[in-house]
């Protein structure tokens, strides 16, 4: 808050605070609704405590929503009226700008693109969605698939990278092994990329955005593999 006030200068004042957070979350009450990547936060809210501590009204939205809004206001895509933002990281989420406005849906859930089904009967994500793209192409899913296949007996240099303890394999391990030519790691990435592409293709057909922005650590790490 002190940084915001300093940036505003002597002739301006801070009138409200915006909070970007993982979801799902009710934007009005700030109450979390079974957030898969925020263990223990279901049914809880930090909004009243923060408003009291800051002495300012607090506006809360999912990180994907606010990332989409930021992309439409700043940087190379400033001014975009119809923009789709997808983040691929620990989980997969997103945000939608339609006709220059942030689309939030009836209950604040618009933009939860990670729960688009791409493989019926496939693995489930942290919220229990069956075969959704988050359960197949997120960083968490890539690491889980690699660990399972190694536990099932498939050979991989990834084991040597984690002192023969498959439980230590992360998405970073998968990417590093793939870059070094490991067959299992590359197959894990191929599966993730293929299903992420299916999800993105469907989203482009549904929303017809003028620009699609990909963000998140896994999305950036996947850049060398898009030609697959």
UniProtKB/TrEMBL annotation:
Pfam families associated with the record: ROK
InterPro entries linked: ATPase_NBD (IPR043129), ROK (IPR000600), ROK_cs (IPR049874)
Coiled coil regions in record: none
Spans through the membrane: none
Family matches, as PROSITE patterns: ROK
PANTHER family reported in the protein's UniProt record: BIFUNCTIONAL UDP-N-ACETYLGLUCOSAMINE 2-EPIMERASE_N-ACETYLMANNOSAMINE KINASE (PTHR18964:SF149), ROK (REPRESSOR, ORF, KINASE) FAMILY (PTHR18964)
Name of the protein: ROK family protein
């Amino acid at each position: 808050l002190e940084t915001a006030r300093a940036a505003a200068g002597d002739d301006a004042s801070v009138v409200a605070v915006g909070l970007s957070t993982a979801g799902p979350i009710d934007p009005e009450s700030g109450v979390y609704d079974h957030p898969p990547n925020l263990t223990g936060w279901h049914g809880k809210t930090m909004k009243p405590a923060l408003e009291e501590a800051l002495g300012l009204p607090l506006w809360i939205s999912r990180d994907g929503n606010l990332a989409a809004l930021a992309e439409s206001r700043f940087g190379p895509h400033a001014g975009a009226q119809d923009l789709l933002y997808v983040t691929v990281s620990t989980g997969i989420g997103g945000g939608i700008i339609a006709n220059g406005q942030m689309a939030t849906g009836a209950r604040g859930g618009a933009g939860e693109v990670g729960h688009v089904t791409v493989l019926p009967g496939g693995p489930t994500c942290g919220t229990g969605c069956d075969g959704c793209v988050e359960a197949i192409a997120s960083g968490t899913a890539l690491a889980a698939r690699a660990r399972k296949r190694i536990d099932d007996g498939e050979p991989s240099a990834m084991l040597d990278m984690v002192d023969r303890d498959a439980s230590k394999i992360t998405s970073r391990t998968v990417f590093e092994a793939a870059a070094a030519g490991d067959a299992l790691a590359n197959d894990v990435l191929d599966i993730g990329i293929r299903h992420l592409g299916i999800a993105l293709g469907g989203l482009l057909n549904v929303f017809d955005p003028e620009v699609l922005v990909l963000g998140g650590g896994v999305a950036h790490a996947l850049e060398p593999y898009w030609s697959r």
